Amino acid sequence: MPVRSQPVVDPQRPAVSALPALATPMPERTKSRLLELVKRHGPLTAQDLAQRLDVSVPAARRHLSDLREQELIVCRTERPGGRGRPQHVFTLTDRGEAAFPKTYSTLCVDVLRHIEALFGEGAVLRVLDARNVEVAGRLERELPRSMPLGERVRALAARLDEQGFDTEVEQDGDVWYLVERNCPNLTVARQYPQLCGSELSLYTQVLDVPVHRDRRIACGQGICRYRIG
């Protein structure tokens, strides 16, 4: 009686389920792998990514489309080696880069600590105030005082979103609230509360109305909330 050969099982290869829904990588995991590939290997085409992810090109394009909507990647046209037929390649945006671990906060804390040690406690606040002057000048050009207050608040929220603050705008009658659900500077803010004070001064100057903060992430609360007007 002939012996039926058994399939060779590769221990490094995960078993394939009989259920079609489980035979492909989970979408969010695939997106994470896609971002990692672009980060590690530089600009890649959809075909390159599909091959590396072991998915179809249309599937890769769907993930790329989702990541573009989230502003994590951007598409540009370039010629391989400066010659040949132009091709579309994908690279990380600043927001996409921010999804990977950074040591900026540790560096910032170290710099502020040395400034304080060398020039005294008030030096940190003077540095932050100088930065505020520069940032406020730019924002005041983008948010002129001729704009209605609500539009200025929303425009400011949009700028803060770009910096990773995950901002929302709420309104209660004539009062506006700016809500930040994330603090990208949390490590620094916990050690140097001057940063939070500088932020409050900046918003007051740019919006040109009284601004009061009633919640603060650095104090252990879930959000930073600013009452405007």
Automatic annotation (TrEMBL):
Residues 21-105 form the HTH arsR-type domain. Transmembrane segments: none annotated. This is Transcriptional regulator. It holds the Pfam family HTH_5. It comes from Deinococcus metalli. CDD domains: HTH_ARSR.
